Amino acid sequence: MRWPDTFFMSLGAIVSNKLRSILTLVGIVAGVASIIAVMTAISVVQGTMEREMSVLGAQTFQVQKWPAGFHSDAERRKAMKRPPLTLENAATIRDHVSTVDLVGSEIWDFGFTANYKGVSTNPNLSICGGTPEYPPNNTHYVGLGRNLDPIDVKAARKVAVIGYAIAKKLYPFTDPIGKDIRVDGRKYEVIGVFDEKKSAFGGNFDNYVLIPVSTFVNTYGLTGRDGFPRSVNITVRAITPELLDDSIEETRQVLRRARGVKPGQEDNFSFFNSQSLITQFNQMSMGIKLAAFVIGIIALVVAGIGIMNIMLVAVTERTREIGIRKALGAKPAGIMTQFLLEAIILCNIGGIIGVLAGFGMGNLVAVFAHFDVSVPMEWAVIGLLFCSAVGIAFGLLPAVRASRLNPIDALRYE
Questions:
Q1: Residues 88 and 218 in one domain
Q2: At what angle do helices 18-53 and 3-16 cross, to 10 degrees?
Q3: 138 or 311, which is more confident?
Q4: How many domains does the chain have?
Q5: Pairwise CA distance, residues 300 & 388, whole Å
Q6: Short-list 25, 16, 6, 8, CA closest to 390
Q7: Are 214 and 91 a contacting pair, CB within 8 Å?
Q8: Are residues 229 and 378 located together in one domain of the fold?
Q9: Residues 118 and 259 in one domain
Q10: What is the DSSP letter of 185?
């Protein structure tokens, strides 16, 4: 029998037993949908996280006192014992690391209010004492007005570059450049406004004020409100992306000497760049992916056992049909191919439905959290390949049994 005839005969057998086919599909759909839904949800979050974490450019890294990214309480307690990074450390990197071209300093504080002519922001504004290197090193550029310049820092001027959200709230109908703004009760001149940079996680990309680092130190000092010394975050840009690893290593050696770290002792500072944070997040999500995959495979195996039982029942019900076909010259290979194809088709119908359902359920995260929709086609392919494998593995026994039926016994079967 030709392949098209075998295919349509198998499809006809599935359609003629609708209820049985639908009940068999439930397990396949559940197994595939569970895998695809979790992988899609992770893909949605992962894509958004990668964009969020890419605040540093491809050739930029940051040196800071605290461990970056996702860390345990034990790691944070250990980091509390480290001496703070200083403006002198930043100057040392600038003067002695040959593979970098921009070195910026940042000191942050949080929980402030800004106001202009009686209009105030919420008390969740951040203040960054920074240097002119801030915009290029953090890929957050000034869209209106100008950036800080070296004279602003040297003279400790009372000037500020404000976030887009602050400008929108305090200056909705006027150009903020040259206007005064009061931040934490202190008056600054607005010299620039950052480009809009929304965060899908509700972050403060547009809700902070950049002032000269010298102005910050003069105003708030180098001791935080918690009584601990403030630590400087140092952003460093390698001359080229290819030199990033060399720049990190050279910076490490320079800082170890400057901070008196002895040979054999671990660093008393941390590095991070965008790629390291992304890699860390991907490693964390790997366990969830593996668990979802295992659960989905178990569901598919259970569904496969159900398919095998259903197919064995079908062989019994169609014994006379098999006998007639053999009497008319059908070969065992043709009989086996038909029943095996039925199992494969049934599994893949369930697989397609499961993939579509999984994409829909997984992207509910994107709908409710306002993330970008993701359709990980590689997992759709993997899901359908497993469906075919399940169909072959669990359809083989019924197919072999059907092909080995004696035609005379089959014709006599009541």
A1: yes
A2: 100
A3: 138
A4: 2
A5: 11
A6: 25
A7: no
A8: no
A9: yes
A10: T
Q: Partners of 60 in the beta sheet?
A: 237
**Residue 217 and residue 107: Cα distance in Å, rounded?**
9
Identify the pLDDT of residue 201. 46
First-last CA distance in the chain: 27
How many CB atoms are located within 10 Å of the residue 170 CB? 21
Distance CA 127, CA 162 (A): 9
Same-domain pairing of 233 and 316: no
* Alpha carbon distances (Å) from 363 to 83, 240, 310: 45, 37, 34
Q: Indicate if the pLDDT at residue 166 is higher than 90.
A: yes
Both tokens of 267, joined, read: 């660093």
Residue 49's pLDDT is what?
63
Provide the residue type at 361 as one letter.
M
Query: What is the distance of C-alpha 38 from the center of its chain?
Result: 13
Domain residues for the domain of 34 are 3-52+279-412
Same domain, 260 and 361: no
Do 136 and 215 lie in a common domain? yes
pLDDT value for 6 = 63
Region of 382 (left: φ > 0; alpha: ψ -120 to 50; beta: rest) is alpha
Domain termination site, one of 234, 256, 272: 272
Last residue of a domain, one of 253, 272, 291: 272
In this structure, how many other beta carbons lie within 10 angstroms of the beta carbon of residue 236? 29
For the chain, the average pLDDT equals 84
CA distance 381 to 360: 16
- DSSP 8-state assignment for residue 152: H
How far apart are alpha carbons 239 and 256 in whole angstroms?
22
How many CB atoms are located within 10 Å of the residue 113 CB?
14
Phi first, then psi, for residue 123 (nearest 5°) are -80, 45
291 Cα distance to chain centroid: 17
Are 286 and 359 in the same domain?
yes
If asked whether residues 331 and 214 sit together in one domain, one would say no
